[in-house]
Automatic annotation (TrEMBL):
Signal sequence residues: 1-17
UniProt KW Signal keyword: yes
Protein origin, superkingdom: Eukaryota
InterPro entries: DUF1996
Pfam families: DUF1996 (PF09362)
Keywords annotated in UniProt: Signal
Domain DUF1996: 32-280
The keyword ATP-binding appears for this protein: no
Name of this protein: DUF1996 domain-containing protein
Length: 346
């Protein structure tokens, strides 16, 4: 019997677990220790959440729990960093204004940030009975393609989507391009990472090759991991809410395009991407994943994990080290980008 099959049988205990929690914004600036380590500034603006040891350079041996003094995440033992690019609104006179991100449903009082899920099974599957493996210290990964400008390019990744929030709790349909109509309560981006790890490498040159999607089916359907990437991890998912409401009263493009662009210029939405650097203390994540928690119920009671209030999450902030205006009406995006919709020249 293959060892992964053995493991999944050995741990086939019902454990209705779905971990969902929020992290407030730590800092928003042009740093990217995963894709552009050491660059200060990196090419485009990100919004970052998690432990405050975040920096331009984060070697895999960096002791993130040890070097952090606080975290913006609800679990006090989670010093990971999670980040995405940010959105801008492009006005008809060609200038850009940052779209702020805001707390998600149940976390309206959070200072922006994003909601993190660690999923064992399909999100609304009441059974939730799978064992999943937590990541190891030094682990990091990326999903998406900053140069994707077509559906075909974006379709290599599963489930990097947009939802037009007609109400604050609208969760479908999910689209792969920017919504082109006005969304009453904002836009949600949902980003799901691959879930099969090679079990050896903490990272890879493109920050993706050490991870894979299931060989057949999907994570949600319990599809098996390929032999090259046999370790089934939790599905890390972000939900990010963008407050596009203030822009609904301004003039929109007459050609029907979305007025929103990513901080690196993508005006199609196909270049949606996300970054993850694991930084949980000791085995605290595995303990939580082995605990029957649903959203936050029982997570802390049964796993011993400590939670902090949203007010305390909001207190953990980092001063930007890249000094530049990212919030005013800008004639170009920070880093010198303009909106573009066609293929990206190399
Ligand atoms: C980031 O790294 C620099 C250079 O090593 C260091 O001086 C600074 O204290 C670090 N910042 C944080 C928040 O760890
Ligand atoms: C461009 O348009 C925006 C939105 O209407 C407006 O706030 C801004 O002042 C304009 N900038 C210039 C230079 O006209
Ligand atoms: C929470 O834990 C208690 C005690 O173990 C258990 O009785 C209850 O069913 C659990 N609730 C959920 C939602 O899992």
């Amino acid at each position: 019997m293959h060892w992964t099959a053995f493991l999944s049988l050995a741990f086939a205990v019902p454990s209705s677990a779905l971990v969902r929690f929020h992290c407030s914004q730590l800092v928003t600036e042009r740093l990217d220790p995963l894709v552009q380590p050491g660059s200060n500034p990196s090419t485009h603006v990100h919004q970052i959440v998690g432990g405050d040891s975040f920096n331009a350079t984060m070697h895999p041996s960096k002791d993130m729990p040890g070097e952090s003094t606080c975290t913006t995440c609800q679990f006090t033992e989670d010093f990971s960093n999670y980040w995405t690019a940010i959105l801008y609104f492009r006005a008809q006179n060609g200038t850009y204004k940052r779209v702020k991100n805001i707390g998600n449903n149940q976390f309206r009082n959070a200072n922006g940030g994003l909601t993190v899920y660690y999923m064992q099974d399909a999100i609304y599957d009441p059974a939730q009975r799978s064992k999943v493996t937590a990541f190891k210290p030094g682990f990091r990964m990326f999903v998406g393609d900053v140069n994707a400008r077509s559906l075909a390019e974006a379709a290599r990744f599963r489930q990097l989507t947009y939802t037009c929030l007609d109400t604050f709790v609208t969760r479908s349909p999910e689209m792969m391009a920017f919504p082109t109509r006005k969304c009453a309560e904002g836009i949600m981006t949902t980003l799901r990472f691959p879930t099969c790890w090679d079990g050896v490498n903490l990272d890879s040159p493109d920050h993706m090759a050490h991870m894979s999607y299931p060989e057949t089916g999907t994570f949600e359907s319990g599809g098996p991991c390929p032999a090259s990437h046999p370790v089934r991890t939790a599905q890390v998912m972000f939900e990010v809410v963008w407050d596009t409401k203030p822009f609904n009263d301004l003039e929109w493009p007459k050609d029907g395009k979305s007025p929103f662009v990513w901080s690196f210029g993508d005006g199609t939405g196909y270049a949606n991407h996300a970054d993850y650097v694991f930084g949980w203390k000791d085995d605290s994540l595995q303990k939580i994943l082995d605990t029957p928690c649903h959203f936050m119920t029982n997570c802390s009671v049964e796993s011993g994990a400590k939670l902090q209030s949203v007010a305390d999450m909001n207190k953990c902030v980092q001063k930007p080290v890249v000094g530049e205006d990212i919030d005013g009406w800008l004639t170009e995006l920070p880093g010198g980008f303009q909106a573009q919709y066609g293929p990206v020249s190399a």
